[in-house]
Design goal:
The structure is a single chain. This protein has 2 domains: 91 residues, no CATH class; 116 residues, Trna Endonuclease, Chain: A, domain 1 (3-Layer(aba) Sandwich). The chain is α+β, with helices and mostly antiparallel strands. Strand 1 and strand 2 form a beta hairpin. The model has no long low-confidence stretch (mean pLDDT 93). Helices cover 38% and strands 17% of the residues.
Length: 243
């Protein structure tokens, strides 16, 4: 606590520090991770490391890991079995601490929830979860939100979400172009009936049990066949170019 120009340890702070020492240093680390302070670093680290099934641990080159998630690795070293040598070595059970954090890295909105749910949904079903990438967090001009690198050519997934039940969404002009250019590999995930008053983890489970996401494979073909109806709702108006 800062008071009168001085900083002093409060009773609660002393209690946490004592408990943290008694738990081997994991109490505070787990609290900070669960609070979502390092969710972005965890996402990037999770895309780098590789599962060694025989050893029951994830591995990643040391320099690459530290450059990607320096503060998070400092916390992970408090957990039993985590080692930083030439490589970062993280036991599977410790890695689960990171994967069980349900904090949205881009703010809690209907749109970000939909993207997060598709990201987690694909990770849970992927042959290699590290090859599921939430690319829209780094570049929102790609025309899609999620990539699946487990297959070649890669799947490109655009995510739409709504509080309603009716299948209804808008494709931007860029998404429209990308959907047609990558027709067989472009799909839409639709999450409906989102309720912002529910905790994300509980809502995700309930929505999956209800049959979400609705997956629309090859959106361009579905529109061409008439299985989906696309109507223009905006027009770009400019002056004609002089001849």
């Amino acid at each position: 606590m800062a008071k009168g120009g001085y900083i002093r340890l409060t009773k609660d702070g002393h209690r946490v520090a004592t408990q943290d020492r008694q738990s081997g240093g994991t109490l505070l680390a787990r609290a900070l991770i669960d609070a979502g302070f390092f969710v972005k670093q965890a996402r990037r680290l999770g895309e780098l490391w590789v599962l060694d099934k025989d050893a029951g641990q994830f591995t990643c080159p040391r320099k690459q890991a530290i450059a990607t998630a320096p503060q998070l690795i400092g916390l992970l070293r408090r957990f039993p079995g985590v080692m930083v040598r030439d490589s970062l070595l993280v036991p599977v059970q410790v890695a689960r601490v990171l994967s069980d954090v349900w904090v949205l890295p881009s703010g809690d909105t209907i749109g970000s929830r939909g993207e997060y749910y598709s990201y987690r949904y694909e990770q849970m079903r992927a042959l290699d979860a590290t090859k599921i990438r939430w690319v829209a967090l780094d570049d929102n001009h790609l025309g899609y939100d999620i990539e699946d690198l487990n297959v070649e050519p890669r799947r490109r997934i655009e995510v739409k979400a709504s509080g309603g039940r009716e299948l209804r969404f808008v494709l931007s002009s860029n998404e429209w172009r990308v959907a047609h250019h990558n027709a067989p590999r472009y799909e839409v995930h639709y999450w409906g009936e989102l309720n912002m008053s529910r905790a994300p983890k509980d809502e995700f489970t309930a929505l999956v049990d209800a049959g979400y996401p609705i997956k629309l494979l090859n959106v361009a073909a579905l529109i061409d066949r008439g299985d989906l109806v696309a109507e223009p709702n905006e027009y770009l108006v400019t002056r004609p170019t002089p001849v």
